[in-house]
Specification:
Two copies of one chain form a homodimer. The first copy, chain A, has a single domain, classed as Orthogonal Bundle (Arc Repressor Mutant, subunit A), CATH 1.10.10.10. Chain A contains eight helices and two strands. Chain A is mainly alpha-helical and 163 residues long. A two-stranded antiparallel sheet of chain A has the order 1-2. The interface between A and B is large, with 64 and 64 residues. Bound molecules: FE2/S2 (inorganic) cluster (FES) (2 copies). The structure holds a DNA duplex (30 and 30 nucleotides).
Chain lengths: 163, 163
DNA sequence: GGATATCGGACTAAATAGGTCCTGTAAATA
DNA sequence: TATTTACAGGACCTATTTAGTCCGATATCC
């Protein structure tokens, strides 16, 4: 129903946790599962996917574990989502041309592409650093929403969170 | 996979078709299915959902059918999506508080809310009139993307479409 | 009254997501 | 070297959701 899967949500929680405790040593899967209160096998599965996508680096053997591959502010949300559930695309046709019977006669194809682009851009601007609480504010807090002004309240709450 | 369901996509295609032929008489389900090249039972199901949500008005009996309840520029995309697949929310927690075990300790809950708000706002700005080709340009063409400038190409193509 | 077309929901089948478990392999340690 | 630890990669099963079909009831027009 137009939402990210629970696995992805979990994955981002784990990533945020890793971003939060900015120590260099790697955390193993069991430990991360405990910290985030999530089922261990699931966390393990998620970690493997994230590693394969190049968002985490893994260290095998005893004292092994996972750690962030990059700085949190260089990991956009869209990349985490992509890693865990494939390419982001509002509609099927957005990703895979030719999947649709209409295609040629379809009126809404092009507009969907633009909508998709807008959402994609929004998810690209937001990084893991924005999700994790900035306990060490060395870098500036990047504004979350990249939309131009509208009168809904979330932008207000965002502005409040900034100051 | 972070996309709208195929049914919803179909539904919007049908709505766009209805918006395109701006005659006042209602179109029946069979006719709409033919025009859009979609399976008739599916179209029928979609039409019922859209009617229940108040986006279409139906007329029973012979010469019956469906027509738009409002002007296309007063039907936002988000409403069509909501009608066909429930409330728009990126994460489960965004919609239903208490579904998550963490909830209290969760770091990412609030940022997700803001992301969700941004996407929601984007889908609210885009209306059915933007999706259907403006064959009768009495009203101005409303810009699709409501995000502030970024360097990806879709905004460029959008700007090109405007002028 | 008969033809037409929506209404509402039940129903089945297919696809996807969620979750578990097992075998192999790399690294550290004793 | 032997042992322990912990990731890698799948196979696998189950639950849930989605897609699609169908039918009896009801409303409208002629
Ligand atoms: S719905 Fe697939 S191309 Fe338009
Ligand atoms: S993941 Fe559910 S409240 Fe944070």
């Amino acid at each position: 129903m137009f939402r990210i899967s629970r696995l992805t949500d979990y994955g981002i929680v784990v990533m945020a946790h890793l971003a939060e405790c900015r120590d260099d040593d790697s955390h193993n899967a069991r430990e991360l599962a405990e910290d985030t209160q999530l089922p261990a096998p699931v966390v393990s599965k998620i970690l493997k996917s994230l590693t394969r996508a190049g968002l985490l680096v893994s260290q095998r053997g005893s004292k092994g574990g996972y750690s962030l591959a990059r700085s949190p502010d260089e990991i956009p949300v869209v990349e985490m989502i992509t890693a865990l559930e494939g390419p982001v695309g509002i509609t099927e046709c957005t990703i895979q041309p030719g999947a649709c019977a209409q295609e040629s006669s379809c009126q809404v194809r092009d507009p969907w592409h633009r909508i998709n682009g807008a959402v994609h851009a929004a998810l690209e601007k937001i990084t893991l650093a924005d999700l994790a609480k900035p306990i060490d504010p060395t870098g500036p807090f990047i504004p979350l929403v990249g939309m131009d002004g509208d009168e809904t309240d979330h932008t207000a709450s965002n502005a409040k969170a900034l100051e």
